[in-house]
User: Fold this.
Amino acid sequence: MTQSIIVQGQCGNQIGCRFWDLALREYAQVNKDGVYDDSIGSFFRNVDSRHEDPANIPLGEGKGKIKSLKARAVLVDMEEGVVSELMKGPLGEVFDCRQLLTDVSGSGNNWATGHKMYGSQYKEQLSEAVRRAAEFCDCLQCFFVIHSMGGGTGSGVGTRILNLLEDDYPDVYRFVTAVYPSAEDDVITSPYNSVLAMRELTNHADCVLPIENQALVDIVNKITQALPPTKSGKRVYGVSPAVKPDSALTTGTAVGSPEEKPFDKMNNLVANLLLNLTSSARFEGSLNIDLNEITMNLVPFPKMHYLVASQTPLYCMADVKVPPRRLDQMFSDAFAKDHQMLKVDPKHSLYLACALMVRGNVELSDIRRNIDRLKPNLNFVHWNEEGWKTGLCSVAPVGQPYSLLTLANNTCIHNTFTDIRDRFTKLFKRKAHLHHYTQVDGMDMSDFTDSLESLNSVIADYYNLEQTMGQPVVMEPRLQIAS
Assistant:
């Protein structure tokens, strides 16, 4: 088994709060004997809290009964509020306080402050926190970086960390889960931050899973509509007997109760995405997918590593008295636009490759049958018409008989990036708010122009491929050898 380290920014810490809680629930469901095994070891260390420095217990002594778990995580935030709340909460003991890095002033929604100023100021501390986490791994395979794109810490410090990881651990895969702002975002400078950060993601990440805030909002609204009405015809979110009190989704918090955080349900969706993505690396299955196989099979060209994710069922369905979706319907849902983590419709664009990661009581013949059923309605690039990667993990998510995560490298993503570019251009043409960036040491106008050029290049790559859809394939002439 391999290990992975999760590096969390401010938004990433809120998602991480849901992820670590759900991961522990998932292991508790599978591991009834409380034994520390390789599957738990992929994200957690086993330590003896009686030691003055529990992190110094050798790895070999960590086998056997679970004593105390520490997450393989590095928590970073230039505002200490979220991390402080996390450490004071029920999950606080899971995190190693020597793998936290916080400040008090924040990045002011400014990529330059996060990337140039704090990134340089805390470079050694960031490297040390990651090194400490890496030293406790037997076989470190992947870094997961979780951050937002619209603010200053996530976009700035998050991408600076990505650069550090490439320099210090060039052979370890770097997966990024990046939360993109919606068009109605209340941070006026979010288009600048997003475009500046995207150049770093394009150049330094192995694989990026973009998540759009508006898509998460729409999915949560869809879930809410599934709550059954009471006799009065109204949906009651706090006391409805249809909602399980200790659900894997509400994590023990009643839906609509004062304790529930505003974005908990949205963060749960992203947390479940990461759990499903790593399920094959953590549990046994008849057809496991290693994380390196994702990049190998889904990224045909180095900079075209942006994957559109969708998943089904929409997890809250397990908390409501609604029968589970039929297996075939689950596959159909995964390709529907209202299940995508981006506001896109991949069915009308060109697939470069697609991965199906199934969990639970499903047979390989079920997967093959559904691929054959769906394939005629999907457009695959002519040089990769059999570009399907399938995985089957035997351990289902908590509260579900089975689930499906799809990862598609699809040209529809250029629409999302074009919207971001257009919002960037509206500000940049007027030079609005630029002085907040250029007054930071090391930042100049070339960062804006180079980032815009990088984004235009990615958009053009996807757009040009999409234009080949439906056109007759021109076969290259074969080399003739004279006899």
